[in-house]
Automatic annotation (TrEMBL):
It comes from Oceanites oceanicus (Wilson's storm petrel). InterPro entries: RA_dom, RASSF1-6, RASSF5_RA, SARAH_dom, Ubiquitin-like_domsf. PANTHER family: RAS ASSOCIATION DOMAIN-CONTAINING PROTEIN 5 (PTHR22738:SF9), RASSF (PTHR22738). This is Ras association domain-containing protein 5. It comes from the Eukaryota.
């Protein structure tokens, strides 16, 4: 008789304070800048992570609002609440934001913190944090759970961003949840798609116009040759 036994996988035990201390010392020894990790008395620790923003779609921000100052950040002033007017624009491609976080900071909190720094008022569920890894010449992306701790992943991987880096991207879940977008956002998407369509048409027209000119030139040169 064949008997199938269900074996539950043992969850790894959380590291002790002494193990964390050793890992931080090893990490800091490899740091080539001032971005060190610091261990607290309660066993938590703080450090820095860099997040690459690779967003293909525009984001929604308050219209006519100045960038957040250090004073606003310290006073936790939410500039987005000062106006109901909204506008959409593209964040700089592959912009990098450095964050000082704790070992208790989750992926969800990192996403919310990034959106707040850029004054993005879109629903945080539209975005996801990925870890980018390089292996055998390939670039691999893995979506992180909202409850994951990015600083712990940074500690395990070391300070080398070629080994591990963090990327903020759109939360691709297959089907686009259009209900999550506002009317101005949807209208803006239509304008962008219309512009991209016109640009593509112009590219194709220019390509075949050049091909036509070369073909005509070749025929003209061929007619002028004997035989």
């Amino acid at each position: 008789q064949n008997v199938t036994q269900t074996v539950e996988e043992e969850k790894p035990k959380p590291p002790t304070i002494q193990e964390i201390k050793q890992k931080i010392e090893k990490y800091n020894a490899k740091v080539t800048n001032c971005l060190l990790m610091k261990l607290n008395d309660d066993g938590t620790y703080t450090g820095f992570i860099k997040v690459h923003l690779k967003l293909r779609r525009p984001v929604t921000v308050p219209a006519g609002i100045r960038p957040q100052s250090i004073y606003d950040a310290l006073k936790e002033v939410n500039l987005a609440d000062m106006t109901d007017k909204r506008t959409s624009f593209y964040l700089p491609l592959d912009a990098i934001k450095q964050l000082h976080i704790s070992s208790t900071t989750t992926v969800s909190e990192v996403i919310q913190g990034l959106l707040k720094k850029f004054m993005v008022v879109d629903n945080p569920q539209k975005f996801a944090l990925f870890k980018e890894m390089r292996k055998d010449g390939q670039v691999l992306f893995q979506k992180l759970p909202l409850t994951e701790y990015p600083l712990y992943l940074r500690l395990l991987a070391g300070p080398d961003t070629d080994v591990l880096s963090f990327v903020l991207k759109e939360n691709e879940t297959g089907e686009v949840e259009w209900d999550a977008f506002s009317i101005p956002e949807l209208q803006n998407f239509l304008m962008i798609l219309d512009k991209e369509e016109k640009d593509k048409i112009q590219q194709v027209q220019r390509k075949y116009e050049k091909f036509k000119q070369r073909l005509q030139q070749t025929l003209k040169e061929a007619r002028g040759k004997p035989g």
